[in-house]
Design brief:
The protein is α/β, with parallel strands linked by helices and 243 residues long. It has a single domain, classed as TIM Barrel. It contains eight helices and nine strands. The chain has a nine-stranded mixed β-sheet with strand order 8-7-6-5-4-3-2-1-9. A hairpin with a 4-residue loop joins β1 and β2. α6 packs parallel to α7. The longest helix is centred in the last third of the chain and has 14 residues. The protein starts with a helix and ends with a strand.
């Protein structure tokens, strides 16, 4: 197998403000029916995969304080262990998996992980993702016990993954550590999915329920237009493409 086919990193961005490099992974082991990646402006816009040598050269040149692994499911990338080691040993950078489904334990040299918990009820999780959540829930606790800084998020889908499911997820997280940050995202419709948009008041209500169990609950409810260009919504997403 050639390096280009083996590699999964297709895009690299740099935020001068936050001294952060983001490495974007291609590929995911879940098949979420409400996945919003199809709505993102950069989805599918890549011409090649970037080899390990070039990634390391870019990282050394930029010398970031933080390196975030994003896109698809970063833990499916076979080169993630070496990339994380390089970022720690050579750059002394803080490493974070910025979005993970939690189905695979992260390698060594990962400092933080944000896990998107799709559902607490296994039947719903299987129906929505095609995969059981047994390992997801176990791995979330394992990561915490390993000393990884944890965050969690969920998408509120009205009348499907609704307030009762959000409450179950909040209770699960609280049983591990009630101070773990939890972010609730209002669902934005995607093609061929049957659900409507979440309303602002619905997401706020879900956040109030989660706050009964957790001390750090936030929420967002974006329009499709804002979701397509997150840079206009939050300065953390403002960055320059470097590869």
């Amino acid at each position: 197998m050639t390096e280009d086919r083996r590699m999964a990193i297709y895009r690299i961005t740099y935020s001068r403000e936050f001294k952060r490099v983001s490495l974007y992974n291609w590929g995911c082991n879940f098949h979420c029916r409400g996945c919003s990646y199809g709505l993102m402006e950069t989805r599918g816009q890549h011409n090649r995969f970037i080899g390990m040598k070039e990634i390391k050269e870019i990282l050394l040149k930029l010398n970031p304080e933080k390196v975030h692994f994003l896109g698809g499911e970063p833990t499916t990338n076979p080169d993630l262990p070496e990339l994380a080691r390089f970022c720690h040993d050579e750059l002394h950078a803080y490493t974070k998996i910025g979005h993970s489904n939690g189905s695979i334990m992260p390698p060594a040299n990962i400092d933080a992980v944000s896990v998107s918990i799709k559902a607490h009820t296994n039947r719903i999780h299987i129906e929505y993702t095609g995969v059981s959540n047994n390992e997801v829930l176990k791995n979330f606790e394992r990561m915490y016990e390993r000393g990884i800084r944890m965050e969690a998020s969920s998408v509120l889908i009205p009348q499907y993954i609704d307030c009762d499911e959000i409450e179950k997820i909040a209770k699960f997280i609280a049983n591990i550590d009630p101070t773990i940050p939890y972010h609730i995202v209002g669902y934005v419709p995607v093609p061929n999915a049957p659900w409507r948009s979440a309303r602002q008041e619905e997401v706020e209500y879900a956040a109030r329920i989660a706050s009964k169990y957790l001390s750090n609950v936030t929420f967002s409810c974006l329009t499709p237009e804002k979701l397509r260009d997150l840079r206009a919504v939050d300065s953390r997403f403002k960055s320059a493409v470097v590869a």
